[in-house]
Design brief:
With 91 residues, the chain is mostly helical. It has helices spanning 8-28, 32-40, 46-61, 65-69, 74-87. The radius of gyration is 18 Å and the shape is elongated.
């Protein structure tokens, strides 16, 4: 049986990799994208993997935004954004 074009073994591997990636994130607070994208790119094209993990990261961290919004140092942020605006075109 095929689900979304994936066989049972491939779905099991995708699930195991995603589980491992988010267990690492739960233990360390970061790293799920590094592990998930790196490992899943061995099975799937990065064009499919990267947007999926970006969406998962956004969903799993969106609830943190209201708590940290008040703690942002907006003056420092201006300097960082200004530096990015000036140097990004050079890269």
């Amino acid at each position: 049986m095929s689900v979304l074009g994936f066989g049972a073994a491939q779905l099991a591997a995708i699930g195991a990799i995603a589980l491992l990636a988010f267990v690492v994130r739960g233990l360390t607070g970061f790293g799920s994208s590094m592990i998930g994208i790196g490992a899943l790119s061995l099975l799937l094209p990065p064009l499919q993997v990267v947007p999926a993990f970006l969406a998962l990261e956004l969903l799993t961290t969106a609830h943190l935004l209201p708590g940290v919004w008040r703690q942002v140092d907006w003056r420092s942020r201006r300097w960082v954004l200004g530096g990015c605006a000036l140097t990004t075109p050079l890269g």
